[in-house]
Specification:
The chain is an alpha+beta fold and 488 residues long. Helix content is 34%, strand content 21%. It has 2 domains: 300 residues, P-loop containing nucleotide triphosphate hydrolases (Rossmann fold), CATH 3.40.50; 157 residues, no CATH class.
Length: 488
């Protein structure tokens, strides 16, 4: 799996100019150094980022931007694969609506929509797949189409980034160096209208030209971003966790065939994150024990789960003296089930987990315990340099991955502004300027802030900005209510 180094976005919702959220650790900060993810060519990465700010300051918009491409690419990928099966490459133009990118929410300022600037998403990633290359992927959307798209990579032995592919409108360049199993057919295909008409290039390349491993791995990262959002019950994890065992067995058969094909060819094969996600549900009974442990850790006295045997059944929460269906459980416990399930996925297989308003529906102590758990897990992985071996799936497989989970969340819980929980570079703030554009910055941007300072107290006093500001006092409100006969 890949770790996120940084994410940047511009002209998206309340974000006008380029805003960057960076997981790169501040080397000047010695606190909690044991939790950092060490990367030889990149330096240290943060396992967790917490985003604070007033309501409407842009926190949710930034997190939404991180998964916008995931939502659009997944849908586009399915369209492409379906048409490939029908052997109708020339029909792709008709399959993709002309307004496919029209739903992108651009910045609205004092002068209206920001229509003269592309919306740009930029991801910087580092791969755990040795030799651990760094990827830089960027895509710009303008006038309802892909305006520009580039992918660069750099291995530890490289002095500079090398091009994998680039496009500017319909002009496409696919490099012939540094691509696994390069074929001259790539140059022919790159000039084909098929690639010019289908937006964007990344999903098209990996479906048609699977030999381009770098494209495939970046796509896997983008579509594996785990966005829990604020939805509590009717969410993807519900259908995923309740998928019947018969369907899981079918998935196992597919993966086993793929593995046999590769092992028979005596090729080095690394299972993809998507294939791991399919197989993980087969282990749901043993994972249930860890889920119960997580619930107990977060203060819920559950003793077991009962998972559905067929479609239509519900997950059941089993307590000492009663059994409760998922739909009848409390709002907090339903959300907690999603959190626990997603955490288990990240701890086992890596990934970046995104929570918007993590404290919604949950006791504030749960957020404390979640951060404490992430710190201890990260500390363990860093200390032991633990390499997860998934050879238990098939004896013919040894996986050389290190799976490091990452977490980014927004919150209004100022009690988390605790130097015992978070480093300065893990604390980020959002606020709007006079034009209403969101800005994002880290506590480490304040050079005079010391580790011994009371972060929470100083934040609430306005020393770091990013708090609600009002020029209306309570007396003005009371007087207005009286004048309007609301208060008689």
């Amino acid at each position: 799996m890949q770790q996120l180094i940084s994410f940047s976005v511009s002209n998206y919702k309340s974000i006008k100019n380029e805003a960057t959220l960076s997981f790169a650790a501040d080397q000047r900060d010695p606190s909690h150094s044991s939790i950092l993810i060490e990367k030889e060519q990149q330096g240290s990465l943060l396992p967790t980022i917490a985003l604070f700010g007033a309501n409407g300051s842009g926190k949710s918009n930034l997190l939404s931007a991180m998964t916008y491409l995931k939502r659009k690419y997944e849908k586009l990928f399915l369209i492409i694969k379906k048409k490939q099966k029908e052997a109708k490459k020339t029909a792709f133009k008709e399959s993709i609506p002309d307004d496919y990118w029209s739903d992108i929410p651009v910045f609205i300022g004092e002068n209206g929509l920001l229509t003269d600037t592309p919306t740009t998403f930029r991801f910087s990633l580092i791969d755990d797949h040795l030799p651990a290359p760094i990827y830089e992927y960027s895509v710009s959307i303008f006038h309802n189409r892909i305006w520009e798209e580039t992918l660069y990579k750099k291995k530890p032995s490289d002095q500079a980034y090398s091009l994998v592919f680039s496009r500017k409108l319909d002009s496409i360049e696919i490099a012939n160096k540094g691509i696994d199993n390069y074929s001259p057919d790539l140059e022919i295909e790159s000039n084909n209208n098929y690639y010019k008409k289908v937006n964007p290039l990344l999903p098209c390349v990996i479906t048609e030209l699977s030999t381009i491993n770098y494209c495939r791995r970046v796509y896997i990262f983008l579509t594996d971003l785990i966005d829990y959002g604020s939805v509590i019950y009717n969410h993807k994890w519900v259908s995923e966790i309740t998928r019947s065992r018969k369907e899981n067995i079918k998935e196992l058969t597919k993966i086993k065939k793929a593995i046999n094909n590769h092992t028979n060819n005596k090729e080095s094969y690394y299972i993809t994150q998507s294939e791991v996600h399919k197989s993980k549900l087969l282990d749901i009974d043993s994972d249930a024990k860890n889920m119960v442990l997580f619930f107990n850790y977060f203060g819920c006295p559950i003793i077991d789960f009962r998972f559905p045997e067929k479609k239509g059944d519900e997950i059941k929460f089993i307590y000492k003296n009663k059994t409760i269906n998922l739909s009848e459980e409390s709002t907090g416990n339903r959300k907690l089930l999603g959190i626990v399930f997603m955490l288990l996925r990240c701890f086992k297989y890596g990934g970046t987990l995104i929570f918007d308003e993590i404290e919604s529906g949950l006791h504030e102590i749960i957020a404390f315990k979640l951060l404490d758990l992430m710190n201890h897990i990260s500390e363990y992985l860093a200390r032991e340099e633990h390499r997860f071996k998934m050879s238990h799936m098939y004896n013919s497989f040894i996986f050389e991955y290190r799976f490091y989970p990452q977490l980014v969340f927004s919150t209004h819980n100022t009690n988390l502004l605790d130097p015992n929980l978070l480093r300065k570079d893990q604390i980020w703030f959002s606020q709007k300027d006079e034009e209403g554009a969101s800005e994002f910055y880290s506590l480490s941007d304040y050079p005079d802030v010391r580790i011994v300072d009371d972060f929470q107290r100083n934040y609430l006093r306005g020393l770091y900005d990013s708090i609600p500001v009002s020029d209306v006092d309570v007396e003005t409100v009371i007087s207005a209510l009286q004048d309007s006969n609301v208060l008689l």
